[in-house]
TrEMBL record, chains A, B:
The keyword Cytoplasm applies. The record marks Y142, K189 as: Important for catalysis. It comes from Pedobacter segetis. This is 3-isopropylmalate dehydrogenase. The lineage of its organism: Bacteria, Pseudomonadati, Bacteroidota, Sphingobacteriia, Sphingobacteriales. Binds 1 Mg(2+) or Mn(2+) ion per subunit.
Amino acid sequence: MKLNIALLAGDGIGPEVIAQAVKVCDAIAVKYKHEINWTSALTGACAIDDCGEPYPDSTHEVCLAADAVLFGAIGHPKYDNDPKAKVRPEQGLLKMRQKLGLFANVRPTFTFPSLIDNSPLKRERIEGTDLIILRELTGGIYFGERGRKDDGNTAFDTCTYTRAEIQRLAKLGFELAMTRSKRLCCVDKANVLESSRLWRETVQDMEKDYPEVTVAYEFVDAVAMRLVQWPNSYDVLITENLFGDILTDEASVISGSMGLMPSASKGLHTSLYEPIHGSYPQAAGKDIANPLATVLSAAMMLEDAFGLQAEADAIREVVNKSLADGIVTEDLSGKNKAYGTNAVGDWLAKNI
Amino acid sequence: MKLNIALLAGDGIGPEVIAQAVKVCDAIAVKYKHEINWTSALTGACAIDDCGEPYPDSTHEVCLAADAVLFGAIGHPKYDNDPKAKVRPEQGLLKMRQKLGLFANVRPTFTFPSLIDNSPLKRERIEGTDLIILRELTGGIYFGERGRKDDGNTAFDTCTYTRAEIQRLAKLGFELAMTRSKRLCCVDKANVLESSRLWRETVQDMEKDYPEVTVAYEFVDAVAMRLVQWPNSYDVLITENLFGDILTDEASVISGSMGLMPSASKGLHTSLYEPIHGSYPQAAGKDIANPLATVLSAAMMLEDAFGLQAEADAIREVVNKSLADGIVTEDLSGKNKAYGTNAVGDWLAKNI
Ligand SMILES: CC(C)[C@H](C(=O)O)[C@@H](O)C(=O)O
Ligand SMILES: CC(C)[C@H](C(=O)O)[C@@H](O)C(=O)O
């Protein structure tokens, strides 16, 4: 198979972790006789430095021409804490989501038995956790009208949702639930927000098309609690953009395996795969960043975007082997020897 | 001293836990020679049943005439999962907040050494946690314009904040920080929302008036993570209404002492004190609800609204004694004997 993949390494540790995923995919390509065509493009702070734009048109062209996008991370401290900065790396992210129509962010949270003691939660609370949050990614308050009034002394943001946007996201949720435990949780704030009432109404209407799926409706504040108390009581959750931002991040730390969690953003034109961790600028260039989340994101990409199940499984297997054999970076090595980012990538590629 | 207190017991376990707080306060009044004048009024589902209104004008009059309001909990399952219900108990809550001008919800999260093992978090993560979240309670997306368009197929909600609203809340935060560790965390989503940028700008402008306070600015998604990872790294946090809803609930479960957490809502006309737990309808009428959060809310009321420090401390002391002696309801009794709601209240009153 010929795979055309856009490579957006981004900022901070992005380039280092992406490099390891490329090594691993290239090893897969050799073993399973595929041809991967990688096309790199700039995004984030490095793109601003280059051309003043965090998501340049040239990068968008590269993404559109690709079968899938593998993304690192973006963000740089020089843009933080400056509410008045004109261009910020995050704007590139939002522009990319919108222009590529990346409407559904798929964020699994699961545990690795060998890492369970890294969790801030007690073992009995976190054991068996295997949930997926589907976050709507191109609507809501992120993309509504916003501005100032009264000489800048009043600010407003608008959260808007259409029935079609909700259906598109919920459909993925129902379908995913059908392949798993057939339980779906719709997260909203329907006791306050009109947009949440439209979410609830729309999902309730869709229930008849999926008679086997049991749907629960929970308020976002209640979910924020239950994610900490009984994360293993959830399976598939669907929610709007801002709630998803908060809940996916909360969910990411409970497993203790944040450095290993992959994610996908399903799009109208193409789909994008990225680790959930950030650009971690303090670690950049030090060969200490954990590449496993990016490597597992590449596995997700091979499976989802190309249907290459055996190849994806082979990557997951070698990752499990690296964990079992202690071929890991310092965040996971505990009292044992820590390997560098590159050394972990080399080991994974060699063991494919 | 003469204390005029409005008593809003509400729904579910509300009346039972409120009754215990009344017993304890009455015992305090005897011992410290105060005269408490309790005036009861309906709110929530019971008020809807009575007159079709969850926060009737007559109840509002009672609150306005009082020096402080002691509140139980509201909500009833018959109103849940019905996005189209015309009147809901929660609307009473929002109306009450708005009409009483309850602009600041003060929600502490702390630990009781004897209860620390109830926390879903590991001991080393939760030990020493003592934080307070100040949630703005009468603005933002809760009270902005909302509605439908396109034959009901598009829904919108508006989040609006004025500089004055932010200053009012932030002032409390700075003042509270001055009485504690002098660290303040402003929680927003300034990388996306204009209203958050106004929050950040406004708080940054206020920093010069509190040169001793160190202010950190964090994004709501990052705070949702850190609350689970290192709750004891926080002291005072300030945030807008919706973020506060989610984060205070998340924070409430990490201590393992949810059934003990009090809260205050500071108002323009009067202030309101309530346990943070809900109306827990499944437990209503069974004499099993834990009254300690309500009793501790009464302590907070005596301290904040009436300046009765010794009296508040006396209540906290007897609560600690009940925990130490195991005079507790079934949620805290573990393998030991569980006491009923009433028995706990009687014991506390007797031991004042
Ligand atoms: C950087 C920021 C705009 C972004 C978001 O809020 O969506 C990030 O937090 C994320 O979750 O990908
Ligand atoms: C019941 C609901 C409207 C309310 C809120 O969202 O404010 C509740 O969750 C709370 O936190 O007091």
